[in-house]
Protein backbone atom coordinates (compact mmCIF):
# COMPACT_ATOMS: atom_id res chain seq x y z
CA UNK A 1 0.00 0.00 0.00
CA UNK A 2 1.34 3.43 -0.87
CA UNK A 3 0.38 7.02 -0.20
CA UNK A 4 0.95 10.04 -2.42
CA UNK A 5 3.63 12.52 -1.48
CA UNK A 6 2.85 15.73 0.36
CA UNK A 7 4.18 19.28 0.17
CA UNK A 8 7.14 20.25 2.38
CA UNK A 9 6.49 21.63 5.87
CA UNK A 10 7.76 25.22 6.21
CA UNK A 11 10.09 24.57 3.30
CA UNK A 12 11.42 21.34 4.85
CA UNK A 13 10.37 17.96 3.45
CA UNK A 14 8.46 15.60 5.69
CA UNK A 15 10.12 12.48 7.10
CA UNK A 16 9.00 9.77 4.70
CA UNK A 17 8.29 6.45 6.42
CA UNK A 18 7.81 2.84 5.32
CA UNK A 19 5.72 0.87 7.84
CA UNK A 20 6.27 -2.91 7.80
CA UNK A 21 4.04 -5.27 9.78
CA UNK A 22 2.03 -8.33 8.79
CA UNK A 23 -0.96 -7.17 10.86
CA UNK A 24 -3.19 -4.71 9.01
CA UNK A 25 -4.52 -3.14 12.21
CA UNK A 26 -0.99 -2.47 13.50
CA UNK A 27 0.03 -0.83 10.21
CA UNK A 28 -3.14 1.25 10.18
CA UNK A 29 -2.55 2.36 13.76
CA UNK A 30 1.02 3.35 13.00
CA UNK A 31 0.02 5.27 9.89
CA UNK A 32 -2.74 7.12 11.71
CA UNK A 33 -0.45 8.17 14.57
CA UNK A 34 2.40 9.17 12.30
CA UNK A 35 0.38 10.98 9.64
CA UNK A 36 -1.15 13.15 12.35
CA UNK A 37 2.29 14.73 12.81
CA UNK A 38 3.01 17.74 10.58
CA UNK A 39 6.59 16.67 9.88
CA UNK A 40 6.02 12.98 9.07
CA UNK A 41 4.18 10.84 6.54
CA UNK A 42 3.83 7.10 5.96
CA UNK A 43 4.41 6.83 2.22
CA UNK A 44 4.18 3.03 1.93
CA UNK A 45 3.12 -0.04 3.90
CA UNK A 46 4.37 -3.62 3.60
CA UNK A 47 3.00 -6.86 5.03
CA UNK A 48 5.97 -9.16 4.30
CA UNK A 49 9.75 -8.96 4.44
CA UNK A 50 10.02 -9.38 0.68
CA UNK A 51 7.48 -6.63 0.06
CA UNK A 52 9.44 -4.36 2.42
CA UNK A 53 12.57 -4.81 0.31
CA UNK A 54 10.68 -4.10 -2.92
CA UNK A 55 8.92 -1.01 -1.55
CA UNK A 56 12.15 0.33 -0.11
CA UNK A 57 13.73 0.12 -3.57
CA UNK A 58 10.72 1.94 -5.00
CA UNK A 59 10.23 4.68 -2.40
CA UNK A 60 13.66 5.10 -0.74
CA UNK A 61 12.01 6.21 2.54
CA UNK A 62 13.89 8.19 5.18
CA UNK A 63 12.87 5.76 7.93
CA UNK A 64 11.63 2.16 7.92
CA UNK A 65 9.63 0.83 10.87
CA UNK A 66 10.25 -2.92 10.71
CA UNK A 67 8.53 -5.74 12.58
CA UNK A 68 10.71 -8.79 13.35
CA UNK A 69 8.27 -11.64 12.72
CA UNK A 70 7.28 -11.39 9.06
CA UNK A 71 6.27 -13.84 6.31
CA UNK A 72 8.77 -14.69 3.53
CA UNK A 73 11.71 -12.85 5.14
CA UNK A 74 12.18 -11.97 8.80
CA UNK A 75 12.54 -8.33 9.78
CA UNK A 76 16.25 -8.85 10.43
CA UNK A 77 16.73 -10.52 7.04
CA UNK A 78 14.85 -7.77 5.23
CA UNK A 79 16.83 -5.12 7.10
CA UNK A 80 20.11 -6.79 6.12
CA UNK A 81 19.10 -6.93 2.45
CA UNK A 82 18.01 -3.29 2.45
CA UNK A 83 21.18 -2.11 4.21
CA UNK A 84 23.45 -4.01 1.81
CA UNK A 85 21.81 -2.29 -1.16
CA UNK A 86 21.26 1.04 0.56
CA UNK A 87 23.93 1.74 3.22
CA UNK A 88 22.20 5.00 4.07
CA UNK A 89 19.00 3.18 5.13
CA UNK A 90 17.72 3.94 8.62
CA UNK A 91 15.61 1.19 10.13
CA UNK A 92 13.87 1.08 13.49
CA UNK A 93 12.81 -2.34 14.72
CA UNK A 94 9.38 -2.22 16.34
CA UNK A 95 8.59 -5.59 17.87
CA UNK A 96 6.79 -7.49 20.62
CA UNK A 97 9.97 -9.52 21.20
CA UNK A 98 12.82 -8.41 23.48
CA UNK A 99 15.05 -11.47 23.64
CA UNK A 100 18.81 -11.07 23.49
CA UNK A 101 19.08 -12.86 20.15
CA UNK A 102 16.32 -10.81 18.50
CA UNK A 103 18.01 -7.58 19.54
CA UNK A 104 21.45 -8.82 18.50
CA UNK A 105 20.27 -9.98 15.06
CA UNK A 106 18.49 -6.70 14.42
CA UNK A 107 21.56 -4.57 15.05
CA UNK A 108 23.83 -7.00 13.24
CA UNK A 109 21.52 -6.51 10.24
CA UNK A 110 21.97 -2.74 10.38
CA UNK A 111 19.06 -1.45 12.46
CA UNK A 112 19.48 2.05 13.94
CA UNK A 113 16.87 1.70 16.67
CA UNK A 114 14.86 -0.91 18.56
CA UNK A 115 11.53 -0.35 20.28
CA UNK A 116 8.93 -2.64 21.80
CA UNK A 117 5.36 -2.25 20.56
CA UNK A 118 4.35 -1.28 24.10
CA UNK A 119 6.29 1.97 23.66
CA UNK A 120 4.40 5.25 24.07
CA UNK A 121 3.41 7.27 21.02
CA UNK A 122 5.65 10.11 22.17
CA UNK A 123 8.70 7.84 22.43
CA UNK A 124 8.00 6.34 19.01
CA UNK A 125 7.80 9.78 17.37
CA UNK A 126 10.89 10.98 19.24
CA UNK A 127 12.87 7.93 18.12
CA UNK A 128 11.83 8.46 14.49
CA UNK A 129 13.07 12.04 14.62
CA UNK A 130 16.35 11.11 16.35
CA UNK A 131 17.16 8.27 13.96
CA UNK A 132 16.28 10.54 11.05
CA UNK A 133 18.81 13.07 12.39
CA UNK A 134 21.50 10.38 12.30
CA UNK A 135 21.45 9.11 15.87
CA UNK A 136 21.50 5.50 17.03
CA UNK A 137 18.59 5.00 19.44
CA UNK A 138 18.92 2.15 21.89
CA UNK A 139 16.93 2.29 25.16
CA UNK A 140 19.04 1.57 28.26
CA UNK A 141 17.30 -1.75 28.92
CA UNK A 142 17.88 -2.88 25.33
CA UNK A 143 21.51 -1.70 25.40
CA UNK A 144 22.14 -3.78 28.50
CA UNK A 145 20.67 -6.89 26.92
CA UNK A 146 22.65 -6.26 23.74
CA UNK A 147 25.88 -5.95 25.74
CA UNK A 148 25.12 -9.21 27.55
CA UNK A 149 24.40 -10.97 24.26
CA UNK A 150 27.53 -9.65 22.58
CA UNK A 151 29.67 -11.10 25.39
CA UNK A 152 28.23 -14.59 24.87
CA UNK A 153 29.82 -17.23 22.68
CA UNK A 154 28.09 -18.07 19.40
CA UNK A 155 26.72 -21.57 18.87
CA UNK A 156 28.01 -23.27 15.75
CA UNK A 157 25.43 -24.24 13.10
CA UNK A 158 25.78 -27.89 14.18
CA UNK A 159 25.33 -27.02 17.86
CA UNK A 160 22.21 -25.05 16.99
CA UNK A 161 20.90 -28.03 15.03
CA UNK A 162 21.54 -30.37 17.96
CA UNK A 163 19.83 -27.92 20.30
CA UNK A 164 16.66 -28.00 18.19
CA UNK A 165 16.61 -31.80 18.34
CA UNK A 166 17.04 -31.60 22.12
CA UNK A 167 14.04 -29.25 22.25
CA UNK A 168 12.01 -31.91 20.42
CA UNK A 169 12.93 -34.51 23.04
CA UNK A 170 15.44 -36.53 21.00
CA UNK A 171 18.13 -38.53 22.83
CA UNK A 172 21.80 -38.26 21.83
CA UNK A 173 21.54 -41.59 20.03
CA UNK A 174 18.43 -40.46 18.12
CA UNK A 175 20.07 -37.15 17.19
CA UNK A 176 23.12 -39.01 15.91
CA UNK A 177 20.90 -41.21 13.75
CA UNK A 178 19.10 -38.17 12.35
CA UNK A 179 22.36 -36.36 11.52
CA UNK A 180 24.29 -39.45 10.44
CA UNK A 181 27.08 -39.05 13.02
CA UNK A 182 28.30 -41.08 15.98
CA UNK A 183 26.61 -40.71 19.37
CA UNK A 184 29.91 -39.70 20.95
CA UNK A 185 30.09 -36.75 18.53
CA UNK A 186 26.63 -35.61 19.61
CA UNK A 187 27.70 -35.84 23.25
CA UNK A 188 30.58 -33.50 22.46
CA UNK A 189 28.24 -31.00 20.77
CA UNK A 190 25.86 -31.16 23.74
CA UNK A 191 28.73 -30.55 26.17
CA UNK A 192 29.92 -27.56 24.14
CA UNK A 193 26.50 -25.95 23.88
CA UNK A 194 25.93 -26.47 27.63
CA UNK A 195 29.16 -24.57 28.27
CA UNK A 196 28.27 -21.74 25.89
CA UNK A 197 24.75 -21.41 27.29
CA UNK A 198 26.09 -21.71 30.84
CA UNK A 199 23.66 -24.48 31.78
CA UNK A 200 24.01 -27.97 33.24
CA UNK A 201 21.15 -29.96 31.73
CA UNK A 202 18.94 -30.27 28.66
CA UNK A 203 15.89 -28.56 30.18
CA UNK A 204 17.96 -25.53 31.16
CA UNK A 205 19.50 -25.47 27.69
CA UNK A 206 16.11 -25.30 25.97
CA UNK A 207 14.74 -22.75 28.45
CA UNK A 208 17.79 -20.51 28.10
CA UNK A 209 17.74 -20.80 24.31
CA UNK A 210 14.08 -19.78 24.21
CA UNK A 211 14.72 -16.83 26.54
CA UNK A 212 17.61 -15.68 24.36
CA UNK A 213 15.53 -16.09 21.20
CA UNK A 214 17.84 -18.69 19.63
CA UNK A 215 14.68 -20.38 18.38
CA UNK A 216 10.94 -20.18 18.96
CA UNK A 217 8.23 -22.74 19.48
CA UNK A 218 6.87 -22.22 15.97
CA UNK A 219 10.23 -23.39 14.61
CA UNK A 220 9.74 -26.68 16.41
CA UNK A 221 6.34 -27.27 14.83
CA UNK A 222 4.58 -26.84 18.18
* Alpha plus pi helix count: 10
Number of domains: 2
Largest sheet data? 5 strands, parallel
Report the top-level CATH class of the largest domain.
Alpha Beta
Shape field:
elongated
CATH topology of the largest domain: Rossmann fold
Oligomerization state:
single chain
First-last Cα distance: 33 Å
Instruction: Return the string of H and E elements.
Output: EHEHEHEHEHHHHHH
Instruction: Give me the side-by-side strand order of the main sheet.
Output: 2-1-3-4-5
Rounded to an integer in angstroms, the radius of gyration calculated over CA atoms is 20 Å
Weakly predicted, low-confidence segments:
none
Helix- and strand-based class?
alpha/beta
Query: What share of residues are in beta strands?
Result: 5-15%
User: How confident is the prediction overall: mean pLDDT?
Assistant: 86
The CATH superfamily title of the largest domain: Response regulator
Question: How many DSSP E strands?
Answer: 5
Helical content stands at 40-55%
Amino acid sequence: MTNPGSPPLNGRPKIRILAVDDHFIVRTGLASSINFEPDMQVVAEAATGREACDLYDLWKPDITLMDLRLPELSGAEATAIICRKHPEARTIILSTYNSDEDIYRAFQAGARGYLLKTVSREELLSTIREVHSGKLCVPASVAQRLAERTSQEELTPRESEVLRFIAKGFSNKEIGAQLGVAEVTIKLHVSNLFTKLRVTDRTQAVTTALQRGLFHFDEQGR
